[in-house]
Amino acid sequence: MPLQPSKYARRLLVIGLAASSICRISPASADDAPAADNVLKSRALFAEGRSFVQAGNYEQACAKFEESLRLNDGIGTQFNLADCWEHIGRTASARSLFLGAAASAHAAGQAEREQVAKARADALEPRLLRLVIDVQATDPELRVRRNHVVVARDAWGSAVAVDAGAYLIEASASGKKAWSSRITVPVNASEPISVSVPPLEDANAACEPKSAATSADEVGKSPAKPRSNATPPLTGEAETRSPRRTAYALSLAGLGVAAVATGTVLALEYQSKNEDAKAICPSSVGCSQADIDNHAGLVSDAKGFRTWSFVGFGVGGAALIGATVLYFAPSSPTQRAFVTTPFVTADGSWGATVSGKF
């Protein structure tokens, strides 16, 4: 049977861990000023968190402990944050952080702290909420995400411990329509909550042309006249292409090729960072705080590379379109101006617009 500390003993331990966390600071040299400043801020945040705990305000206490832990990864802060998460119902996160505190205590040779942290983690095991993602799709390139984080294949179909709350489940594969569903894990769930990922539809299914047969309510309707997009014939004598215009077109094309090449390199960097992030604690269970921080850093780097990759492709595409138009379109003696405008939308799509007279 796992060790179950009494309520009084728990309080004494939390206070002791708090005090030791505050006293773990060693004198810093002038070169360590930024780190020392972070430790001082962490201590102040930790003290504020303890004040909120004593007042019974665990929501605000957790926020203070989280920021304190971000600045200084102390064993006492880990333990207090895990205890705070347990009070607000985040049992899966609390258990994971208790195990992280136990690992930190073991590394520091603090056997008593390690034992108590493990006991708190074991006590949470029967209260854990679990989510099962039943994947019926069989696409070899299928990726399943939970709240935008990739779920490892070995976790598919398993009852994974999660906190109560809402979850977005997504599935995607090359050449397939993306699928998503939202599900809520209630705080009082007694059985694992299950969500099923169906086989994905082909992406080109929506692009198939309509059947020649029409429905009964369309019979008798006269077909709409197609809108003509034909370019009116040019009048007057064709003008020969000037050497300067050809040089501009070639220069613009060179810029486009360089931008596309840059976008490709950045896209490869994004893929590399993303794969590194997915390799960190792939089961999302029992992750240490270091794993969580490393994962968040790699995801942030990957998003930056992805954004600049889109910009590179957008600028390159716009430049190549402009060069093509400038080189092949007939010119007019009155005006030979054009504008190419690349754009990148909020969802990562990119493109370009070209306007002007030639």
Overall description:
With 358 residues, the protein is of the alpha+beta class. It has three domains: 7-125, Tetratricopeptide repeat domain (Serine Threonine Protein Phosphatase 5, Tetratricopeptide repeat); 129-204, Carboxypeptidase-like, regulatory domain (Immunoglobulin-like); 243-357, no CATH class. It is 48% helix and 15% strand. The chain is built from eight helices and nine strands. It has helices spanning 7-22, 33-54, 58-71, 75-87, 91-107, 111-124, 243-278, 289-328, and strands at residues 129-135, 143-146, 149-150, 159-162, 165-172, 179-185, 193-197, 337-344, 350-357. Strands 3-2-5-6 form a four-stranded antiparallel sheet, with no helix packed on it. β8 and β9 (350-357) form a beta hairpin. It is globular, with a radius of gyration of 30 Å. Mean pLDDT is 76; it is low at 1-6, 12-31, 211-220 and 230-239.
